Amino acid sequence: xxxxxxxxxxxxxxxxxxxxxxxxxVVSVGLRRGKLPxxxxxxxxxxxCADIFTILVGAYxxxxxxxxxxxxxxxxPVETDVSRYVLQVVFVLNYWCVSLSYSGIAVLTxxxxxxxxxxxxxxxxxxxxxxxxxxxxxxxxxxLLCVLLVHKGELDYNSNSVIHMFLDDFDDSDENLxxxxxxxxxxxxxxxxxxxxxxxxxxxxxxxxxSVVSYIFIIQLLFSRRKVSSYHRHWGSMLRLGIHLILFAGxxxxxxxxxxxxxxxxxxxxxTFSSMTTCFGERFSTVCDIx
Length: 291
Known about the structure:
Largest sheet: none
Number of strands: 0
Order of helices and strands: HHHHHHHHH
Strand content: under 5%
CATH topology: Rhopdopsin 7-helix transmembrane proteins
CATH class: Mainly Alpha
Number of domains: 1
Low-confidence stretches: 72-79, 280-291
Number of helices: 9
Helix content: over 70%
Structural class: mainly alpha
CATH superfamily: Rhodopsin 7-helix transmembrane proteins
Radius of gyration: 23 Å
Distance between the termini: 12 Å
């Protein structure tokens, strides 16, 4: 099971990378030809760029882990702590960026439907770019605030189980798998994932609620003015926004699944932690039957 996931991880990453690059190419062509408005697609461009950067960072550590030398029992990166810190920062900020981008699209669509003239005149592409920059600065500040206040200055807080997939090398052999589970349980035991779940999931849930509320308000407005011909053109925007909400929900589901992976491993570690600690001193002993 682990080896299958480890094999599929780079394949999914390559598919996501190609999809984001293809999307940026299509949008760039549309912007050059004047078919697409920049201020409406700036947030999705921001999201795609963040996704590409995250994929490249993950690929770097994945390849680095593959090429690192093995220690006495299992292959681990030389700079495990630093790698864990960097990956957690990139993964969490990318997740927040996706959430903020989708909610921003919903708010902009709401603004365009309710006040089309003000949207066209007052909201320029430069202002949208400034809002995106301000959003990034706010996200970084909030992330540091969460680390200092919630996690007491400790950055390594077991972001989710995907981190372990990137940084821990293992195979199907019982010996290596048991040793890997020992190390993983010790790490999860000292860095519980409950706090990180709350800190990382709550902001996207808040932004998702903003998106849903904006979507409901727009539907109500369009339905109440459905006889006005000038409002008919906004139904295309509503369709795109609905697709964004579905993708947003899928992103939340995938991230939640990653956290559930950490908790299921944590539940496994809790009753057997004492025996695993004993096995930690006897890594190659056959009595350590953990797998």
